[in-house]
Amino acid sequence: MSKHHKIAPPKPVRRPVYPVLAALLLLIGLGVWLYLKGGSGTQPDKLPSQAGNQTASMVDEGQCAGCHARQANDWRGSHHQLAMQEATDASVLGDFNDVTFQGEGETTRFFRKEGGFWVNTPGANGKPADFRVAYAFGVAPLQQYLIEIPGGRLQALGVAWDVDKRAWFHLYPGQGVDFRNPLHWSRPQQNANFMCVECHTTGFKRNYDPAADRFSSQWNSLGVGCQACHGPASGHLDWAAKKLDAANAGFAIDLSGTNRIRAVETCARCHSRRAPLDDGHHQENRLMDDYLPSALTRELYELDGKIKDEVFEYGSFAQSRMFAKGLRCSTCHNPHSTALEVPGNGLCLQCHNPSGKTGISGIDGKGLKAKDYDNPEHHHHPQGQAGSQCVDCHMPGKSFMVNDYRHDHGFTLPNPARALRLGTSDACLGCHRDQSGDRVAEQFRLWYGEAKADAPRYDESLWLIRNGRPGASRALYQQLEIRELPAIRRATLLAELPAYPSERALKAAARDLTHPAPQVRLAAIRAVAALVPPEQRRNLLAPLLTDPVRGVRITAAHELLGLRATGLGNYEKTWDKAIAEYEAVQLKLQERAEANLNLALLYQANGRGDAVESRLRTALQRDPEFLPALVALVQWLDGNFRWEEGRALLDRGLKEHPQSALLQHANGLMLVRKGDLPAALEAFAEAVRLEPQNSQYDYVYAVALHDSGQLETACHRLEELLERDAANREARLALISYWREAGQMQKVQALLAELEQQNPDDPALRRE
Fold first, then answer.
1. Which Pfam families match (predicted)?
2. Beta strand 221-222 with 201-202: parallel, antiparallel or unpaired?
3. Beta-bridge mates of residue 112
């Protein structure tokens, strides 16, 4: 529950000399952090039914077992059933017999009192206090505990119980997570109402009251029950009693039917890294009506799509050949027990066997080879030992939350030589760490020969693209021309197009505005918006304002904000409706500082300046540690001729967070606007020192050096930047300009030649 993306603050009224802070932060178009969410209570949720105008509502799930005994028996005792339980002697697995755990500079004592389970640990003020455990979260391989604090808030304790080792451990070892850290259990980033509970209960609603700043969260039942996946069952009960003639047996959708995309999206509501668009989900909706799933970003996934950070399976599976061939989650997993349908290698051998034929209906068996895969002649490991199981080589994983091992669901092929070349992980290299990588790669080659590919590989192409290598843009277009490219990979590649601008890039992005996959359409919208100025977006993006999927509609509306003043012509009404949907999404998430910052951005761009400052201050009230909102407020005050007030606010922030590169950089920008370039240079240098891998900080520092008369120093700084980030077009163009200014035409020509190798269609080449 600790991963996040940063949100861009609003631009100031007066443009600063240097790139505004919006360029420094990774903007998620709709703003909120890609997490799981959370709450407490018992109120049933109601959703519209497909059977006329009636309302489907949650029912007592005890009624399900009468007709569905087998499924109910599978579910009892499963991770789904036990996902969240009230803290009782039966549910709590941790040792609360007055034991003490020390970690991250804090001491936590676990004890019993008043018939309940308690912890004594530092709270938000850093002072130890007693807190009652309200709920047990999960059952294996670890169990977390939710603490109930005022305001209806449930907070996830950072010290968890290792079920196998029977010991307490910290979820963020070595990260210095004390009460001042945003990851501390008492902080908003560990609020379970928003982050967690939705995926551990059935029929959950956060029910946040922004006026009172409190939650009245509710659910129909604890644990992931029948209606968590199938939806409200009142219509189904009426159908079963023959009181209702309805499609799908009275449910919003039929999960057992042929629409595997909808079935997988049902699982993805929890098993994906995503941003919420509402308070809960609606079963009849597409995934992107209620959530925005992440693409294969460099922060979350390796170049070949394997998991790097905690992403909860969906993103890996959606890019796999298994998914493309027709598999769904329930092909391999019993959705009720969560166990595998067939143990061990037998699961894979249903399709990958000596007959070359699949034993599972609905699966495309074209391309299957008749081969005995469960044989040392194939896997080259003794039967029954490590390396002999299909998952060992084709589903390597990682441990998250310290001891929770997650298998990668991309079903990749190991290739140690390629992994060494691209810098990715590999099953062979991961197991044989005691041997040199080259030796492992050579042995693999002797066993399996040289890998051959009929088409350019996605991972090798992405390596060229992200590293700014010769042929980068060509590799990008080659990938985008592959018809059967998985949608999530296509969306990922579209996000790379703005780094290689050209007419061809724009055409590639525009073509995918009508792609059948909503995630691709959304990525295409953002790519088009990055490739053309606002006044050229209308005809391309406006048709998406009526897209059938909410996530796509509101993204299009957001990217057309710049045309509000000049007019949208015949699209004015549809834009008004779509941007109102965007605002409604943020209002549903007002408990989050990020959403309030997004509202401030919206109001500033939408001509509602009187509402901007209050939203920024609300963002800081929700989370005082959310520094992008602090910087945004400073810039807003400065841009509205309240420099001294903004200066005092930033100085206070710097005093409280002296190690924040973001605040140091913002300080530099503010000093530039006031004409104090020497002091600004010191601030920019400090930002770079604190966050040396941030290319944008380095770029702005180089610009400031140039403007202070240190031309050669600025050039050398940009050269160092391009050595580690060769795809940084902004830095390259600045360096070309500076070397030309210095009369170093040979270096200018060399940089232009490299740019032409990267992207021969770059419009900057035509100006030379």
1. Cytochrome_C554, Paired_CXXCH_1, TPR_16
2. antiparallel
3. 117
Question: CA-CA distances (angstroms) from residue 478 to 207, 451, 452, 485, 490?
Answer: 47, 20, 17, 11, 11
Q: Which domain holds residue 83?
A: 46-250
Q: Report how far residue 537's alpha carbon sits from residue 541's, in angstroms, rounded to the nearest whole number.
A: 6
Q: Is residue 146 part of a domain?
A: yes
Q: What is the pLDDT of residue 244?
A: 86
- Only one residue has tokens 């991250």, namely 104
Angle at 662 between CA 615 and CA 156, to 5 degrees: 65
In this prediction, residue 466 carries a pLDDT of 98
Q: Identify whether 698 is part of a domain.
A: no
**What's phi and psi for 159, nearest 5 deg?**
-100, 125
Burial of 264 (0-12, 13-18, 19+ CB in 10 A): buried
Alpha-carbon span 447 to 334, nearest angstrom: 35
Token couple for 761: 């269609």
Answer yes or no: is 123 within a domain: yes
Cβ proximity of 704 and 684 under 8 Å: yes
Look up residue 476 and give its amino acid: L
Q: Which of 596, 607, 509, 519 is nearest to 561 (CA)?
A: 607
Question: In the 8-state DSSP scheme, what is residue 387?
Answer: T
Whether residue 93 is contained in a domain is answered as: yes
Q: If DSSP states are collapsed to H, E and C, what string results for 536-548?
A: HCHHHHHHHHHCC
Paired tokens of 518: 């909503």
Q: What is the pLDDT of residue 259?
A: 87
Burial degree of 686 (CB within 10 A; 0-12, 13-18, 19+) = buried
How many Å apart are CA 227 and CA 240, to the nearest integer? 16
Residue-level pLDDT at 709: 97
pLDDT of res. 34: 30
| Closest alpha carbon to 30 in 221, 376, 289, 230 | 289
Please confirm whether the linkage preceding 141 is cis (ω < 30° from 0).
yes
> HSE-up of 571 (CA within 13 Å, CB side)?
23
What is the pLDDT at residue 256? Answer: 82
CA distance 276 to 267: 15
pTM of the full structure:
0.92
- Return the exposure string of 391-405: e unless at least 16 CB atoms fall within 10 Å of the residue's CB, then b: bbbbbbbbebbebbe
Domain tally, the chain: 1
CA distance 137 to 330: 24
User: Can you tell me the distance from the alpha carbon of 234 to that of 493, in angstroms, rounded to the nearest whole number?
Assistant: 43
**Helix, strand, coil percent content, the chain, rounded in steps of 5:** 45, 10, 45
Question: Which residues, given as ranges, of the chain have pLDDT below 70?
Answer: 1-54, 565, 768
Buried b (16+ CB within 10 A) or exposed e, 314-334: bbbbbbbebbebbbbbbbbbe
Alpha carbon separation from 354 to 129, 351, 380 (Å, rounded): 64, 9, 17
Residue 291 tokens read as 């959530």
